Every structure is written in C-alpha cells, then in structure tokens.
From TrEMBL, chain B:
<dbReference type="GO" id="GO:0005524">
    <property type="term" value="F:ATP binding"/>
</dbReference>
<dbReference type="InterPro" id="IPR017871">
    <property type="entry name" value="ABC_transporter-like_CS"/>
</dbReference>
<protein>
    <submittedName>
        <fullName>ABC transporter ATP-binding protein</fullName>
    </submittedName>
</protein>
<dbReference type="InterPro" id="IPR003439">
    <property type="entry name" value="ABC_transporter-like_ATP-bd"/>
</dbReference>
<keyword id="KW-0067">ATP-binding</keyword>
<keyword id="KW-0547">Nucleotide-binding</keyword>
<dbReference type="Pfam" id="PF00005">
    <property type="entry name" value="ABC_tran"/>
</dbReference>
<dbReference type="InterPro" id="IPR012700">
    <property type="entry name" value="PhnK"/>
</dbReference>
<dbReference type="InterPro" id="IPR027417">
    <property type="entry name" value="P-loop_NTPase"/>
</dbReference>
<dbReference type="InterPro" id="IPR003593">
    <property type="entry name" value="AAA+_ATPase"/>
</dbReference>
<feature type="domain" description="ABC transporter">
    <location>
        <begin position="7"/>
        <end position="275"/>
    </location>
</feature>
Length: 240, 279
C-alpha cells in the first residue's frame, strides 16, 4: 500500500504583471511506500522544490493528484484537501524541513520545540521533557537552549529545524535541501539523523545538493530529467 | 470528516448609499473601485463569506479602504449590514442569523461571545475610567456582580498583559499606546469570549511594543484556544499570527488560503502585487 501516490501532477504559475504563465512541472508520477526514502534529483530550476512545496501545500497544486494515506483521514488527495485538513496534517503527520529556519521571532529553541509538541496536544510537562530530549539528541549546545535562534550558525539552525519537525514524529517528512551550506561535519550529523528516522519507519522525500550524499541514503531516486524512478546506483555511474 | 465552523459568515453586504439601477444587481455591477460612478453608492463589503473554525486565527489582509474594518464592525454589530448572514455554532444561538436579532440579543452576544480590540484604544476603552474599571464594566455587562471576584479576575488579566498592578486603578489615558492596547486586550478577554476580533491592533506601535503585543496574542491563543479574526494590512503580522488568510480588495474577498500559500503562491493579481511589495 503506497503511503504517497503522485499522479499526473503538474504546477503552473500565473505571473500577472508579465501577463504570462509558467509551467514549472508537469506529468509527475511516482509513488512511495511506507518507510521508504525517495530522493529527487535534477538541475536547479527543474522543479524539485515545487514538488515538495505542492505536497506540503505551500504551493496550490493545479493538476493531477497527490494521494496520501493519512492516519486520521485515510486516503486523502492533498491537492484537493481543505485548508483545515492540511493544517491538521501539518500539525500531526507531515513535516517539512528546509535549509531556512522560518520561526516566530523572539522564541527560544526550547520554546520552539515545546510549542511543536503543545500544538499536538501534549501536556506542558511532557512537552518540556521531550523538548530537552530532542535538544540533547540533536546535540545543540545547552547554552543555546534558551537563546533566540536568529544568531545560530547554519548547522545549529538546521539541527533545530530538524528537531522541530521530527519531535512530532511525522509519518511523512519532506526534506528540502537541508544540507545546503553545511560543512562536512554537520552533514555527517544530518546523515545520522536521517538514518535514525529511516530506522524508525518514517517515510521520507528529500532533495539534496550533494548527489553522493543522497545516493548513499535513499532507496530510490526520482529523476526530474527523465521523470522516472531509477535506483540510486545508476545515478552514480552516470555522473561518474 | 467535516469539521463544524464556529462562526459562519455568508454573503455579507454593506452599502453606503441608496444604490441605483446601474449598481443594484451584484452580477452586473459597474463599479469604479468600490463605488458606483452613477449614484455614488459605496459598496464597502460585497458578498463576503468565510468560516472561522474553533481555535484558529484567521487573517484578513487588504489595502486601506478594502472593507476590512467595515466587515469587522458589521460582525461586532457596530454597524448594520445591508444584507447577509452570520451564524454562531453555539447551543444558545443555533442557526439564527445574528444580523437579524434584536439589539438586545446582539448586545448579549457582544457581552458573552465576543471580544473586540480596536485599532484606536479610544474606541475600546473608557479613557477616564481606571483600567480595572474598564475591565469591571465588561464583566458587569457579562453578568458578573461579585466585586471581589471581579477584582481578582481583573488583576489576573492585567498581570497576563503585563500591566503593573500598582497602576490598575489608573486611567488608561495616562498610559502609552502599547499599554493602552494591552489594557484593551485584557478588557476584551475578560468575559472569556470564544471569539476575539482584532482590528489593526499593532498599527502605529513601534517595533518592540508591536512584538510584545503579538507575542501576547499568540500566547493567549495557544493557552486558551480562542478563535480570532485578525485584520491587518501588515503581511508580517499576518504571517506570524494567522493559520489561514483572506485577502480583500474593493470590498470583496478575492482569495483565501493557507497563510504560507497566500504568501508564496498568491493567485490573484492584486495578492501578487501585495506580496511582491513585502520585504
């Protein structure tokens, strides 16, 4: 049973001040089983992020369907789900991590993670404990727990970002270039995190700058150029 | 799964002026911006419909004159609608169009179900009453009579909006704009309303005070689960507060969606212009 099935999916942007439309992606088809990790490969501008943002509904899909197997709603087409349904799924089932930390200003790392848990209906006491666990787990310096993340380094921001998304234990996690601009050491940490998520059975879709990094982690790759699934190995050979 | 809306607004129309054959019919109204060039009638709100769900913050954005505040005034019964319907999912009012209730009943709803925070604190506060007196006034209209209980509630509220208690007996006209706004929020919350209306509450406040007020609103929402309608022309405020957003132009809703979708993938030409103006 597929966890996510993208069928005939397309997204077109209308740019009013130019009086024209731009077809960002079209005819996207792939499916993903529970616990699988699919990587999306392609040149910049080929629409990789558009796919992720459409699944998360930051972009309004305009063609095709994105059927997700939800714990609460059963099979639900994310392309046509109501805003309230999407909000529920974002709170409880689907996580999104980008390279940018986009959070409420004047909120400490600790509060951010607690908030994520409180949103899901955890009690204050549990949120506090779980937040500390998560901050520890992602090896964020204890000194930073009660500071505002706007002064964090790229790696710290990213780890906080992933912590915020994973503390909710999402069933489906979307990773939008989470390793861009990270040094090797931080990448290794992200890799460990992703491996752990996989072992926990999280279904993942990821876009990575670093092809080798991606190929080493994912089960299969969706190639934007051919619009088809290939194995991660093929990619290495071709690029080699 | 169909979630029940807390507040349902349907086809709200607010017109200033008599209207003429040229503009009476909504379908073939020929307006210049939002007024009829033949008879001068202003259509401040045209066919406004939306739902407010339990526990959510709904953002309303639009330029000055787009009808945001008029809509808010209509919902809070400060102004009468020309036509339209608003229902509250509440056992006491099930399926009744609130716009058509008696003024007595409307007052009851205002006192028991609604809280309102105006852009200008002068509209929401009695400037020559003490802060505590302002809160007490709202509590009394909500049916409270026990003075010591009211004082306890008042103190708790003022504390939660960070007004030092030794100033609780002071008149808000002595307060700074940010403080007045916080007293207004305390007053609006005092009857424990399920719905809170916030009309440009941070406009005119400096950045750090604005931040305080926004943090406060977010905290109240998180802790009490009140549903809120937040009107603002400031997209940054909306981005920070609202789960869903409605965009208004010339009295009509031109677009609504998830707040991040409105900001990153706006559909309507006006919304695109608005979003591109941000940053």
């Amino acid at each position: 049973m597929a966890m996510l099935e993208v069928t005939n999916f397309g997204k077109r942007f209308t740019i009013h001040h130019l009086g024209k439309t731009m077809q960002a992606i079209e005819q996207i088809n792939f499916s993903l089983d529970a616990g699988e990790f699919i990587g999306i490969a392609g040149k910049s501008g080929s629409g990789k992020s558009t796919i992720l943002k459409s699944i998360y509904r930051t972009y309004l899909p305009d063609k095709g369907s994105i059927v997700y197997d939800s714990k609460r709603y059963g099979l639900i087409d994310l392309a046509h789900a109501t805003e309230r349904e999407v909000l529920y799924l974002r709170k409880h089932e689907i996580g999104y991590v980008s390279q940018f930390l986009n959070v409420m200003p004047r909120t400490t790392s600790r509060q951010l993670i607690e908030k994520a848990l409180l949103e899901m209906g955890e009690t204050t006491a549990i949120a506090k404990i779980e937040a500390e666990k998560a901050l520890n787990h992602f090896e964020l310096d204890r000194e930073l727990w009660d500071t505002y993340p706007n002064t964090f380094s790229g790696g710290e921001k990213l780890r906080l970002n992933i912590a915020m998304a994973t503390v909710k234990q999402p069933r489906l996690l979307l990773l939008d270039e989470p390793t861009a601009s990270l040094d090797q050491q931080s990448k290794v940490k992200v890799r460990e995190i992703i491996e752990k998520l996989k072992t926990n059975g999280t279904t993942l879709i990821g876009i990575f700058h670093d092809i080798e990094f991606m190929n080493g982690l994912c089960d299969k790759v969706f190639d934007m150029r051919t619009r088809a699934i290939r194995s991660p190995k093929e990619g290495v050979i071709r690029e080699g | 799964m169909c979630e029940e809306a807390l507040l349902r607004v349907r086809n709200l129309d607010k017109r200033f002026g008599p209207g003429c054959p040229e503009c009476k019919e909504r379908t073939n109204r020929n307006l210049e911006k939002n007024y009829c060039s033949v008879c001068g009638t202003v259509y401040a709100c045209q066919d406004v419909s939306f739902d407010l769900f339990p526990g959510e913050i709904l953002g309303i954005v639009g330029e000055s004159g787009s009808g945001k505040s008029t809509m808010m005034q209509c919902l809070y019964f400060d102004a009468d609608v020309s036509s339209g319907e608003a229902t509250l999912n509440d056992p006491e009012l099930q399926d009744e169009n609130m716009f058509q209730l008696s003024s007595q009943k409307k007052r009851y709803i205002r006192n028991h179900k609604y809280g309102m925070v105006y852009q200008n604190p002068v509209n929401g506060l009695k400037m020559n009453f003490s802060s505590m007196g302002n809160i007490a006034e709202k509590l009394i209209s909500a049916g409270k009579r026990n003075v010591s209980e009211m004082e306890t509630t008042g103190n708790q509220l003022l504390e939660s909006v960070h007004i030092p208690l030794f100033r609780s007996k002071e008149e808000p006209r002595n307060f700074s704009g940010g403080m007045q706004q916080r007293v207004q929020i305390a007053k609006a919350l005092s009857n424990n309303p399920p719905i809170l209306f916030l009309d440009e509450v941070t406009t005119g406040l400096d950045l750090s005070v604005q931040a305080n007020v926004l943090d406060l609103i977010k905290k109240i929402q998180r802790e009490s689960g009140i549903s809120m309608v937040v009107v603002s022309h400031d997209l940054a405020v909306i981005r920070m507060l609202a789960d869903r957003t409605v965009v208004m132009l010339n009295g009509s809703i031109i677009e609504q969606g998830l707040t991040d979708q409105i900001l990153e993938d706006p559909q309507h030409a006006y919304t695109q212009r608005l979003v591109y103006s941000l940053l």
